[in-house]
Amino acid sequence: MEPEPAAAFAGDNTYSWPVKGVAVYGAAITAAMAVGYAALYVRPSAKFRSKVVGIIPARYASSRFQGKPLVPILGKPMIQRTWERAKLATTLSRLVVATDDERIADCCHGFGADVIMTSQSCRNGTERCNEALLKLKKKYDVVVNIQGDEPLIEPDIIDGVVKLLQATPDAVFSTAVTSLKAEDACDPNRVKCVVDNRGYAIYFSRGLIPFNKSGKVNPQFPYLLHLGIQSYDAKFLKIYPELPPTPLQVEEDLEQLKVLENGYKIKQVIKVDHDAHGVDTPEDVIKIESLMRERNL
């Protein structure tokens, strides 16, 4: 399926998917293929990357927020909130929670979630997703890494990153960004992203990027906030743990930088209209609950 032009979020080169709330940031996929990958492009069949599994990695021992997946969000554990939102996505063939902690597993079993136990040696959510994928008996073409601390994740965003990967045969990775709020500009827990004019990721950082000469936030610049959802080609995901750690990945403590530093640059980014964010600190719980009350969720 090829994207169809629609209302722009920002700029003349932005097109939207026929999926509510999701837009390609940069040129349309067909234009991107024509510019740089025309020789590689093969129109995908209806069954291309059709089997999709959503995996929610969840660990108890978080250095910033111990036991975060189990923190109550208006009466329900956060991991349950995330699960219930993700279940509404239409592109997922299956949804599982991947954890290394029995307390999280017991909680998830209590509300009917499918759980895969993983080892404590996983260094990040991507490696935990890979281990869970290897333990699943069925074969899947696409793996969606849905962060367990995103209790207000929009199902349309999940569907958007999946459809973007399905529509781009040479892409191994897709993710999502949204507009960065001014108050989050200098928060290291809010990961920023810069992209090229075709929607490919250039860099991710905990610092403000781009950074201008004045050293101040430019209220006119469309800064981008990276959202905690990533979609992988299943074959690439199996390669990821074997890639050596990279200097930028270690310094920023951002797993997606290892992909870029190892030369995997065919990584599409979609821009979405999403004003909620993940829970990184106990203070974020109060913000999320306030937002949910406003929306009557």
Annotate the secondary structure layout.
Elements: E1 15-16, E2 22-24, H1 29-36, E3 52-58, E4 72-73, E5 76-77, H2 78-86, E6 94-99, H3 102-110, E7 114-117, H4 125-135, E8 142-146, H5 155-166, E9 173-179, E10 192-195, E11 201-205, E12 224-233, H6 234-239, H7 247-252, H8 256-261, E13 267-272, H9 282-294
Parallel strand pairs: 3-6, 3-8, 6-7, 9-13
Antiparallel strand pairs: 1-2, 2-13, 4-5, 8-12, 9-12, 10-11, 10-12
- Helix residue percentage: 25-40%
Distance between the termini: 33 Å
Structural class: alpha/beta
Radius of gyration: 18 Å
Strand content: 15-25%
Q: Name the shape in a single word.
A: globular
Mean pLDDT: 80
SSE pattern, N- to C-terminal: EEHEEEHEHEHEHEEEEHHHEH
Helical element count?
9
Query: Which residue ranges are poorly predicted, with pLDDT under 50 across at least 5 consecutive positions?
Result: 1-43
Task: Count every beta strand, where a strand is a DSSP E run of 2 or more residues.
Answer: 13
Describe the structure.
- With 297 residues, the chain is of the alpha/beta class.
- Helices cover 27% and strands 21% of the residues.
- The longest helix is centred in the last third of the chain and has 13 residues, at 282-294.
- It is globular and about 50 Å long.
Key descriptive features of the protein:
297 residues, alpha/beta, 11-stranded mixed β-sheet, two-stranded antiparallel sheet, 9 helices, 21% strand
